What we know:
Blueprint: H1 4-23, H2 31-55, H3 61-84, H4 86-89, H5 93-104, H6 108-147, H7 153-165, H8 168-182, H9 188-198, H10 201-211, H11 222-246, H12 251-261, H13 267-275, H14 280-308
Amino acid sequence: MISSMLITALTPIFAMIALGFAIARTPIAGPGAWELIERLTYYLFFPALLVLRLSDSRFRGEQLQDILLVLLIAVGVLSILLVGLRKFIAADASTFSSVFQGSIRFNTYIGLAIIESLYGDAGLTRAALCLVVFIPLVNLLSVISLTAGSGELGRRLVIVVGSVLTNPLVLACGVGLALSYSNFALPELAEEVVGILSQPALPLGLLAVGAGIRFVAIGEQSWPLIVALIAKLGALPSLVLLVCVVFQINNQLAQVLLIFAALPSPPSAYILARQLNGNVTLMANIITLQTLAVFFMLPLWLQLSQRFL
Length: 309
C-alpha cells in the first residue's frame, strides 16, 4: 500500500502539472506566454534556487564521487543494453535515438519539486550535486545517439560540450559549489534577492511541464513507446537502486538519485530530437506517456527504496 505521506507529497505536484495542462488549453495564456515562462524558469528562477541551496551547503567530495559512481554504472549498463538490442528496438536510427533519449533523460522541474517536498533544503542540496554529474552525462550520450553514423559526431560533440558548459543549471551548480567550498557568504541583500528569485522556480516549472504535454497519434509507435517506458521507469531505477545497495550509498542521497532515475523525459528532449533529426512524434509521445505513468510508478520506487536502503 502506498503510504499516505507519499500521496500527500506527490499529489500537489501532479495537480500543478494538471493545472498547467488545463490552463494551456484556455485563452488565459497563449503559446508565446508559456515559452517565456519556461525560459525565465530555466535561465533565472531555477539557477537562483540552485545557487541559494548550494552556497549554504557544506558538501563533501565523497558525495560527488558516490554520485559519479552510481550514474556511470547505471546509465552505462542501460546504454550498453539499449545499443546491443538496437535492432529489436527500432527499425531506423531516428526512432532509436528518441527511445534512447527517453530512456536516460529526466525532467528537472518535477524532480526538484518532489525532492523539496519530501526532503526539504537538505534534499535540494543533494539534488543539485546530482545535477552537476547527471546533466552533462545524459546530454553527451543523447547527442551521440542522435549523430552516430552520420559523420557529424565530432562537430555535434563540440556543440553539445559547449551547450553543457553554458547550461544555466550547470553554471548555477558551479557557482553554488564554489561559494560553498570557499566559505564565502553572499551579502545579505544579494541573498534576499536570490531568495526571492528562487521562489517561483518550482510552481512555474510544474505549470510549464503540464502546458508542454501533447497527445499525438501513436500509430505504429507502440513497441518503441513500451521500450522507452520500461527502460526509463523500470530498468534505470532498478539499476540505480541495485548500485546504491551494493556500494552502500548514503540513504538520502540514494533516494534522490532514485527519484531522478525514475522521472519522465523532459521537453528539451523533443527540442534536441527536432534539432538533430530524431523522431519528434515518437519523442512527444514518450514524454507525455512517461509523465502520466510516473504518478503511479514513482511512489512504488520510493517504497522499494525504504525497504532496501
